[in-house]
Amino acid sequence: MKILVVFWNLVKDSIDATTHGTRLYHLWMAILTITMLIGMYCYSIQIEHGLSVTGMNDRVSWGLYISNFTFLVGVAAAAVMLVMPTYILKDIDFKRAVLIGEGLAVAALIMCLAFVIVDMGGPGVLWHMLPVVGVFNFPNSMLTWDVIVLNGYLFINITVPMYILFRHYQGKEAKPNVYIPGALLSVFWAVGIHLVTAFLYQGLQARPFWNNALLGPRFLASAFAAGPALIILVLAIIRKTTAFNIEDKTIKKLSMVVTVAAQINLIMLVSELFKEFYAPTHHSESAYYLFFGLDGKEALLPWIHTSIFMNVVSTIMLTFHKLRNNFYVLYTACILLFIAIWIEKGFGLIVPGFIPGPYGKIMEYQPTGIEIGVTLGIWAMGAFIFTILAKTAILIETGKLRFIKKEEKAINEVEA
Protein backbone atom coordinates (compact mmCIF):
# COMPACT_ATOMS: atom_id res chain seq x y z
CA MET A 1 0.00 0.00 0.00
CA LYS A 2 2.87 2.33 0.87
CA ILE A 3 4.44 1.71 -2.55
CA LEU A 4 1.21 2.74 -4.28
CA VAL A 5 1.07 5.95 -2.23
CA VAL A 6 4.66 6.80 -3.18
CA PHE A 7 4.02 5.96 -6.84
CA TRP A 8 0.89 8.12 -6.91
CA ASN A 9 2.86 11.02 -5.44
CA LEU A 10 5.56 10.48 -8.05
CA VAL A 11 2.96 10.69 -10.81
CA LYS A 12 1.43 13.89 -9.36
CA ASP A 13 4.83 15.50 -8.79
CA SER A 14 5.94 14.57 -12.31
CA ILE A 15 2.82 16.10 -13.85
CA ASP A 16 3.32 19.24 -11.81
CA ALA A 17 6.99 19.45 -12.79
CA THR A 18 6.42 18.90 -16.50
CA THR A 19 3.66 21.52 -16.70
CA HIS A 20 5.91 24.22 -15.25
CA GLY A 21 9.08 25.63 -16.74
CA THR A 22 10.76 28.52 -18.47
CA ARG A 23 9.30 30.45 -21.37
CA LEU A 24 11.63 28.56 -23.73
CA TYR A 25 10.38 25.24 -22.34
CA HIS A 26 6.73 26.19 -22.87
CA LEU A 27 7.51 27.41 -26.40
CA TRP A 28 9.22 24.09 -27.19
CA MET A 29 6.27 22.07 -25.87
CA ALA A 30 3.80 24.29 -27.76
CA ILE A 31 5.66 23.72 -31.06
CA LEU A 32 5.65 19.97 -30.47
CA THR A 33 1.94 20.01 -29.59
CA ILE A 34 1.03 21.96 -32.75
CA THR A 35 3.12 19.59 -34.87
CA MET A 36 1.40 16.57 -33.27
CA LEU A 37 -2.01 18.08 -34.02
CA ILE A 38 -1.02 18.60 -37.66
CA GLY A 39 0.15 14.98 -37.77
CA MET A 40 -3.15 13.80 -36.28
CA TYR A 41 -5.08 15.76 -38.90
CA CYS A 42 -3.00 14.22 -41.71
CA TYR A 43 -3.52 10.78 -40.16
CA SER A 44 -7.27 11.33 -40.02
CA ILE A 45 -7.21 11.94 -43.79
CA GLN A 46 -5.25 8.71 -44.25
CA ILE A 47 -7.75 6.77 -42.13
CA GLU A 48 -10.63 8.20 -44.18
CA HIS A 49 -9.16 7.62 -47.63
CA GLY A 50 -6.68 4.81 -46.96
CA LEU A 51 -3.05 4.50 -48.00
CA SER A 52 -3.94 5.88 -51.43
CA VAL A 53 -3.18 9.36 -50.05
CA THR A 54 0.46 8.34 -49.60
CA GLY A 55 3.08 8.02 -52.29
CA MET A 56 3.20 4.24 -51.85
CA ASN A 57 1.71 1.90 -54.44
CA ASP A 58 1.59 -1.77 -55.39
CA ARG A 59 5.21 -1.54 -56.63
CA VAL A 60 6.72 0.40 -53.72
CA SER A 61 4.76 -0.71 -50.67
CA TRP A 62 7.23 0.56 -48.03
CA GLY A 63 8.14 4.24 -47.97
CA LEU A 64 8.71 7.05 -45.52
CA TYR A 65 7.03 5.26 -42.59
CA ILE A 66 9.10 2.07 -42.71
CA SER A 67 12.22 4.11 -43.51
CA ASN A 68 11.81 5.99 -40.23
CA PHE A 69 10.93 2.77 -38.41
CA THR A 70 14.18 1.14 -39.55
CA PHE A 71 16.24 4.15 -38.58
CA LEU A 72 14.64 4.55 -35.15
CA VAL A 73 15.22 0.91 -34.25
CA GLY A 74 18.91 1.77 -34.47
CA VAL A 75 18.50 4.91 -32.35
CA ALA A 76 16.75 2.81 -29.68
CA ALA A 77 19.48 0.15 -29.76
CA ALA A 78 22.17 2.81 -29.23
CA ALA A 79 21.16 3.21 -25.57
CA VAL A 80 23.25 0.10 -24.91
CA MET A 81 26.38 2.21 -25.44
CA LEU A 82 25.50 3.98 -22.18
CA VAL A 83 23.89 1.05 -20.34
CA MET A 84 26.81 -1.36 -20.69
CA PRO A 85 29.61 0.91 -19.40
CA THR A 86 27.43 2.26 -16.58
CA TYR A 87 25.68 -0.80 -15.17
CA ILE A 88 28.00 -3.59 -16.31
CA LEU A 89 31.49 -2.02 -16.43
CA LYS A 90 30.86 0.46 -13.57
CA ASP A 91 32.13 3.46 -15.55
CA ILE A 92 31.08 6.45 -13.44
CA ASP A 93 31.63 8.87 -16.32
CA PHE A 94 28.46 7.58 -17.99
CA LYS A 95 26.37 7.36 -14.82
CA ARG A 96 24.67 10.75 -15.12
CA ALA A 97 23.91 10.29 -18.80
CA VAL A 98 22.59 6.72 -18.81
CA LEU A 99 19.02 7.60 -17.80
CA ILE A 100 18.88 10.18 -20.59
CA GLY A 101 19.96 7.52 -23.07
CA GLU A 102 17.33 5.08 -21.83
CA GLY A 103 14.65 7.77 -22.03
CA LEU A 104 15.69 8.37 -25.63
CA ALA A 105 15.38 4.63 -26.30
CA VAL A 106 11.82 4.60 -24.88
CA ALA A 107 10.79 7.55 -27.07
CA ALA A 108 12.40 5.95 -30.15
CA LEU A 109 10.65 2.61 -29.56
CA ILE A 110 7.26 4.29 -29.14
CA MET A 111 7.88 6.10 -32.43
CA CYS A 112 8.83 2.76 -34.05
CA LEU A 113 5.53 1.23 -33.01
CA ALA A 114 3.65 4.34 -34.18
CA PHE A 115 5.26 4.13 -37.63
CA VAL A 116 4.25 0.47 -37.90
CA ILE A 117 0.65 1.39 -36.99
CA VAL A 118 0.38 4.17 -39.57
CA ASP A 119 2.05 2.03 -42.24
CA MET A 120 -0.61 -0.65 -41.72
CA GLY A 121 -3.22 1.93 -42.63
CA GLY A 122 -4.84 2.29 -39.22
CA PRO A 123 -5.05 0.85 -35.71
CA GLY A 124 -8.05 -1.31 -36.66
CA VAL A 125 -5.83 -3.92 -38.32
CA LEU A 126 -3.40 -4.33 -35.42
CA TRP A 127 -5.26 -7.35 -34.10
CA HIS A 128 -3.66 -9.34 -36.94
CA MET A 129 -0.32 -9.04 -35.11
CA LEU A 130 -1.59 -10.21 -31.71
CA PRO A 131 -0.75 -13.74 -30.52
CA VAL A 132 -3.65 -16.24 -30.58
CA VAL A 133 -6.12 -13.56 -31.74
CA GLY A 134 -4.40 -12.76 -35.02
CA VAL A 135 -2.21 -14.65 -37.47
CA PHE A 136 0.97 -14.40 -35.44
CA ASN A 137 2.74 -17.26 -37.25
CA PHE A 138 5.42 -17.73 -34.59
CA PRO A 139 8.26 -18.74 -34.92
CA ASN A 140 8.30 -18.89 -38.73
CA SER A 141 7.63 -15.22 -39.44
CA MET A 142 10.46 -12.74 -38.89
CA LEU A 143 7.82 -10.05 -38.42
CA THR A 144 6.57 -11.77 -35.27
CA TRP A 145 10.14 -11.90 -33.95
CA ASP A 146 10.39 -8.16 -34.62
CA VAL A 147 7.19 -7.52 -32.66
CA ILE A 148 8.49 -9.56 -29.71
CA VAL A 149 11.96 -7.99 -29.54
CA LEU A 150 10.71 -4.41 -29.91
CA ASN A 151 8.06 -4.73 -27.20
CA GLY A 152 10.45 -6.65 -24.96
CA TYR A 153 13.15 -4.00 -25.31
CA LEU A 154 10.58 -1.28 -24.62
CA PHE A 155 9.53 -3.09 -21.43
CA ILE A 156 13.14 -3.37 -20.23
CA ASN A 157 13.91 0.29 -20.95
CA ILE A 158 10.82 1.39 -19.03
CA THR A 159 11.18 -0.86 -15.97
CA VAL A 160 14.92 -0.53 -15.23
CA PRO A 161 15.07 3.32 -15.21
CA MET A 162 11.65 3.44 -13.51
CA TYR A 163 12.93 1.33 -10.63
CA ILE A 164 16.09 3.45 -10.24
CA LEU A 165 14.17 6.74 -10.36
CA PHE A 166 11.50 5.40 -7.99
CA ARG A 167 14.17 4.56 -5.41
CA HIS A 168 15.93 7.90 -5.85
CA TYR A 169 12.59 9.71 -5.54
CA GLN A 170 12.33 8.20 -2.05
CA GLY A 171 15.90 9.24 -1.23
CA LYS A 172 17.16 5.64 -1.39
CA GLU A 173 19.85 3.95 -3.45
CA ALA A 174 18.74 1.45 -6.10
CA LYS A 175 19.70 -2.15 -5.35
CA PRO A 176 22.14 -3.51 -7.98
CA ASN A 177 20.85 -7.09 -7.62
CA VAL A 178 17.44 -5.82 -8.80
CA TYR A 179 18.38 -3.72 -11.85
CA ILE A 180 21.67 -5.28 -13.01
CA PRO A 181 20.00 -8.43 -14.48
CA GLY A 182 17.63 -6.23 -16.49
CA ALA A 183 20.51 -4.02 -17.64
CA LEU A 184 22.55 -7.05 -18.68
CA LEU A 185 19.57 -8.45 -20.59
CA SER A 186 19.07 -5.13 -22.35
CA VAL A 187 22.62 -5.26 -23.74
CA PHE A 188 21.91 -8.49 -25.63
CA TRP A 189 18.35 -7.41 -26.45
CA ALA A 190 19.57 -4.16 -28.02
CA VAL A 191 21.76 -6.10 -30.44
CA GLY A 192 18.86 -8.47 -31.06
CA ILE A 193 16.31 -5.82 -32.05
CA HIS A 194 18.50 -4.48 -34.83
CA LEU A 195 19.69 -7.86 -36.07
CA VAL A 196 16.11 -9.15 -36.21
CA THR A 197 15.08 -6.05 -38.17
CA ALA A 198 17.96 -6.69 -40.58
CA PHE A 199 16.98 -10.36 -40.90
CA LEU A 200 13.44 -9.23 -41.72
CA TYR A 201 14.80 -7.62 -44.90
CA GLN A 202 17.45 -10.24 -45.63
CA GLY A 203 14.81 -12.98 -45.56
CA LEU A 204 12.88 -11.48 -48.48
CA GLN A 205 14.41 -13.46 -51.35
CA ALA A 206 12.52 -11.52 -54.03
CA ARG A 207 14.43 -8.36 -53.06
CA PRO A 208 18.08 -9.01 -54.04
CA PHE A 209 19.14 -5.52 -52.90
CA TRP A 210 18.64 -6.66 -49.30
CA ASN A 211 20.17 -10.13 -49.71
CA ASN A 212 23.49 -9.06 -48.26
CA ALA A 213 25.37 -10.81 -45.46
CA LEU A 214 26.70 -7.41 -44.30
CA LEU A 215 23.22 -5.99 -43.73
CA GLY A 216 23.00 -7.04 -40.05
CA PRO A 217 26.50 -5.87 -39.03
CA ARG A 218 26.06 -2.66 -40.99
CA PHE A 219 22.75 -2.03 -39.24
CA LEU A 220 24.59 -2.26 -35.92
CA ALA A 221 27.48 -0.04 -37.07
CA SER A 222 25.12 2.67 -38.33
CA ALA A 223 23.02 2.39 -35.16
CA PHE A 224 26.04 2.85 -32.90
CA ALA A 225 27.04 5.88 -34.96
CA ALA A 226 23.71 7.71 -35.35
CA GLY A 227 22.29 6.83 -31.90
CA PRO A 228 25.21 8.07 -29.78
CA ALA A 229 25.53 11.08 -32.12
CA LEU A 230 21.95 12.04 -31.20
CA ILE A 231 22.66 11.35 -27.51
CA ILE A 232 25.65 13.72 -27.67
CA LEU A 233 23.47 16.47 -29.15
CA VAL A 234 20.75 15.90 -26.53
CA LEU A 235 23.30 15.96 -23.69
CA ALA A 236 24.73 19.21 -25.09
CA ILE A 237 21.28 20.82 -25.02
CA ILE A 238 20.54 19.49 -21.52
CA ARG A 239 23.72 20.78 -19.94
CA LYS A 240 23.21 24.12 -21.69
CA THR A 241 19.60 24.62 -20.56
CA THR A 242 19.45 22.82 -17.19
CA ALA A 243 21.40 22.46 -13.97
CA PHE A 244 22.10 18.80 -14.77
CA ASN A 245 25.87 18.54 -15.01
CA ILE A 246 27.23 16.44 -17.87
CA GLU A 247 31.03 16.39 -17.78
CA ASP A 248 33.16 16.93 -20.87
CA LYS A 249 34.79 13.50 -20.54
CA THR A 250 31.39 11.81 -20.85
CA ILE A 251 30.78 13.48 -24.21
CA LYS A 252 34.36 12.78 -25.33
CA LYS A 253 34.00 9.07 -24.56
CA LEU A 254 30.74 8.95 -26.49
CA SER A 255 32.41 10.75 -29.40
CA MET A 256 34.97 7.92 -29.58
CA VAL A 257 32.13 5.41 -29.90
CA VAL A 258 30.58 7.49 -32.69
CA THR A 259 33.93 7.82 -34.48
CA VAL A 260 34.74 4.10 -34.52
CA ALA A 261 31.18 3.14 -35.53
CA ALA A 262 31.14 5.77 -38.31
CA GLN A 263 34.46 4.49 -39.68
CA ILE A 264 33.24 0.87 -39.67
CA ASN A 265 29.98 1.92 -41.33
CA LEU A 266 31.89 3.71 -44.08
CA ILE A 267 34.16 0.69 -44.67
CA MET A 268 31.09 -1.54 -45.00
CA LEU A 269 29.56 0.91 -47.48
CA VAL A 270 32.70 0.72 -49.64
CA SER A 271 32.57 -3.10 -49.41
CA GLU A 272 28.94 -3.12 -50.61
CA LEU A 273 29.73 -0.76 -53.47
CA PHE A 274 32.58 -3.02 -54.60
CA LYS A 275 30.33 -6.08 -54.48
CA GLU A 276 27.58 -4.37 -56.50
CA PHE A 277 29.66 -2.67 -59.19
CA TYR A 278 32.90 -4.64 -59.70
CA ALA A 279 31.14 -7.63 -61.24
CA PRO A 280 27.53 -6.46 -61.68
CA THR A 281 24.66 -8.79 -62.51
CA HIS A 282 20.97 -8.09 -63.13
CA HIS A 283 20.58 -8.16 -59.34
CA SER A 284 22.66 -4.95 -59.21
CA GLU A 285 19.97 -2.89 -60.93
CA SER A 286 18.56 -1.57 -57.63
CA ALA A 287 22.02 -0.32 -56.67
CA TYR A 288 22.49 1.25 -60.11
CA TYR A 289 19.14 2.98 -59.74
CA LEU A 290 20.11 4.29 -56.30
CA PHE A 291 23.59 5.58 -57.10
CA PHE A 292 23.45 6.43 -60.82
CA GLY A 293 19.82 6.31 -61.89
CA LEU A 294 18.25 3.82 -64.29
CA ASP A 295 16.48 4.44 -67.61
CA GLY A 296 16.32 8.17 -66.89
CA LYS A 297 14.79 7.68 -63.44
CA GLU A 298 16.89 9.59 -60.89
CA ALA A 299 14.61 10.51 -57.96
CA LEU A 300 16.95 9.10 -55.30
CA LEU A 301 20.23 10.52 -56.65
CA PRO A 302 20.14 13.81 -54.68
CA TRP A 303 19.30 11.91 -51.48
CA ILE A 304 22.05 9.30 -51.65
CA HIS A 305 24.72 11.68 -52.92
CA THR A 306 23.93 14.08 -50.06
CA SER A 307 24.08 11.18 -47.61
CA ILE A 308 27.47 9.96 -48.83
CA PHE A 309 28.91 13.47 -48.81
CA MET A 310 27.71 14.11 -45.24
CA ASN A 311 28.87 10.67 -44.15
CA VAL A 312 32.40 11.14 -45.48
CA VAL A 313 32.76 14.72 -44.21
CA SER A 314 31.47 13.93 -40.72
CA THR A 315 33.66 10.82 -40.42
CA ILE A 316 36.75 12.81 -41.43
CA MET A 317 35.86 15.51 -38.88
CA LEU A 318 35.48 12.90 -36.16
CA THR A 319 38.64 11.00 -37.07
CA PHE A 320 41.04 13.83 -36.27
CA HIS A 321 41.56 14.14 -32.52
CA LYS A 322 41.90 17.93 -32.43
CA LEU A 323 38.75 18.47 -34.45
CA ARG A 324 36.75 15.98 -32.41
CA ASN A 325 37.75 17.62 -29.11
CA ASN A 326 36.41 20.95 -30.32
CA PHE A 327 32.79 20.65 -29.22
CA TYR A 328 31.44 22.96 -31.92
CA VAL A 329 33.07 20.79 -34.58
CA LEU A 330 31.89 17.65 -32.77
CA TYR A 331 28.28 18.83 -32.66
CA THR A 332 28.38 19.77 -36.35
CA ALA A 333 29.81 16.37 -37.23
CA CYS A 334 27.12 14.62 -35.17
CA ILE A 335 24.35 16.55 -36.95
CA LEU A 336 25.79 15.69 -40.37
CA LEU A 337 26.26 12.04 -39.45
CA PHE A 338 22.76 11.74 -37.99
CA ILE A 339 21.15 13.15 -41.15
CA ALA A 340 23.41 11.07 -43.41
CA ILE A 341 22.47 7.79 -41.72
CA TRP A 342 18.78 8.78 -41.62
CA ILE A 343 18.89 9.12 -45.41
CA GLU A 344 21.01 6.00 -45.85
CA LYS A 345 18.77 3.77 -43.70
CA GLY A 346 15.63 5.20 -45.29
CA PHE A 347 15.65 6.29 -48.90
CA GLY A 348 19.01 4.62 -49.44
CA LEU A 349 17.86 1.18 -48.23
CA ILE A 350 14.09 0.71 -48.15
CA VAL A 351 12.92 2.37 -51.38
CA PRO A 352 15.54 0.99 -53.85
CA GLY A 353 14.75 -2.52 -52.61
CA PHE A 354 11.47 -2.26 -54.56
CA ILE A 355 12.93 -0.65 -57.71
CA PRO A 356 12.91 -2.03 -60.33
CA GLY A 357 9.99 -4.40 -59.75
CA PRO A 358 10.12 -8.18 -60.35
CA TYR A 359 9.33 -7.66 -64.05
CA GLY A 360 11.82 -4.83 -64.50
CA LYS A 361 9.30 -1.98 -64.39
CA ILE A 362 10.53 1.21 -62.69
CA MET A 363 7.93 3.12 -60.67
CA GLU A 364 9.52 5.83 -58.55
CA TYR A 365 8.37 6.84 -55.10
CA GLN A 366 8.01 10.30 -53.60
CA PRO A 367 6.35 10.88 -50.19
CA THR A 368 3.20 13.00 -50.21
CA GLY A 369 2.39 15.91 -47.93
CA ILE A 370 0.13 13.60 -45.90
CA GLU A 371 3.01 11.19 -45.26
CA ILE A 372 5.35 14.01 -44.31
CA GLY A 373 2.74 15.49 -41.96
CA VAL A 374 2.14 12.16 -40.21
CA THR A 375 5.89 11.55 -39.97
CA LEU A 376 6.57 14.96 -38.44
CA GLY A 377 3.71 14.37 -36.00
CA ILE A 378 5.24 11.09 -34.83
CA TRP A 379 8.68 12.66 -34.44
CA ALA A 380 7.08 15.47 -32.44
CA MET A 381 5.32 12.89 -30.26
CA GLY A 382 8.66 11.17 -29.61
CA ALA A 383 10.31 14.48 -28.71
CA PHE A 384 7.36 15.35 -26.46
CA ILE A 385 7.59 12.02 -24.60
CA PHE A 386 11.36 12.28 -24.26
CA THR A 387 11.14 15.85 -22.93
CA ILE A 388 8.71 14.75 -20.20
CA LEU A 389 10.83 11.72 -19.27
CA ALA A 390 14.08 13.67 -19.29
CA LYS A 391 12.75 16.58 -17.23
CA THR A 392 11.34 14.23 -14.57
CA ALA A 393 14.56 12.19 -14.44
CA ILE A 394 16.73 15.31 -14.17
CA LEU A 395 14.67 16.74 -11.31
CA ILE A 396 14.85 13.44 -9.41
CA GLU A 397 18.57 12.97 -10.03
CA THR A 398 19.37 16.53 -8.93
CA GLY A 399 17.31 16.07 -5.75
CA LYS A 400 14.69 18.68 -6.62
CA LEU A 401 11.92 16.09 -6.80
CA ARG A 402 11.57 14.00 -3.65
CA PHE A 403 8.81 12.14 -1.84
CA ILE A 404 7.72 14.05 1.27
CA LYS A 405 5.78 12.20 3.94
CA LYS A 406 2.60 13.72 5.35
CA GLU A 407 4.28 14.57 8.66
CA GLU A 408 7.17 16.36 6.95
CA LYS A 409 4.79 18.16 4.61
CA ALA A 410 2.72 19.43 7.58
CA ILE A 411 5.87 20.69 9.33
CA ASN A 412 7.01 22.48 6.16
CA GLU A 413 3.61 24.13 5.78
CA VAL A 414 3.68 25.32 9.43
CA GLU A 415 7.24 26.70 9.02
CA ALA A 416 6.19 28.46 5.83
TrEMBL record:
<dbReference type="Pfam" id="PF03916">
    <property type="entry name" value="NrfD"/>
</dbReference>
<feature type="transmembrane region" description="Helical">
    <location>
        <begin position="327"/>
        <end position="355"/>
    </location>
</feature>
<keyword id="KW-1003">Cell membrane</keyword>
<feature type="transmembrane region" description="Helical">
    <location>
        <begin position="178"/>
        <end position="199"/>
    </location>
</feature>
<protein>
    <submittedName>
        <fullName>Molybdopterin-containing oxidoreductase family membrane subunit</fullName>
    </submittedName>
</protein>
<feature type="transmembrane region" description="Helical">
    <location>
        <begin position="219"/>
        <end position="238"/>
    </location>
</feature>
<feature type="transmembrane region" description="Helical">
    <location>
        <begin position="142"/>
        <end position="166"/>
    </location>
</feature>
<feature type="transmembrane region" description="Helical">
    <location>
        <begin position="375"/>
        <end position="396"/>
    </location>
</feature>
<dbReference type="InterPro" id="IPR054823">
    <property type="entry name" value="DsrP-like"/>
</dbReference>
<feature type="transmembrane region" description="Helical">
    <location>
        <begin position="99"/>
        <end position="122"/>
    </location>
</feature>
<feature type="transmembrane region" description="Helical">
    <location>
        <begin position="250"/>
        <end position="270"/>
    </location>
</feature>
<feature type="transmembrane region" description="Helical">
    <location>
        <begin position="300"/>
        <end position="320"/>
    </location>
</feature>
<feature type="transmembrane region" description="Helical">
    <location>
        <begin position="66"/>
        <end position="87"/>
    </location>
</feature>
<comment type="similarity">
    <text>Belongs to the NrfD family.</text>
</comment>
<keyword id="KW-1133">Transmembrane helix</keyword>
<dbReference type="InterPro" id="IPR005614">
    <property type="entry name" value="NrfD-like"/>
</dbReference>
<keyword id="KW-0472">Membrane</keyword>
<feature type="transmembrane region" description="Helical">
    <location>
        <begin position="24"/>
        <end position="46"/>
    </location>
</feature>
<keyword id="KW-0812">Transmembrane</keyword>
<dbReference type="GO" id="GO:0005886">
    <property type="term" value="C:plasma membrane"/>
</dbReference>
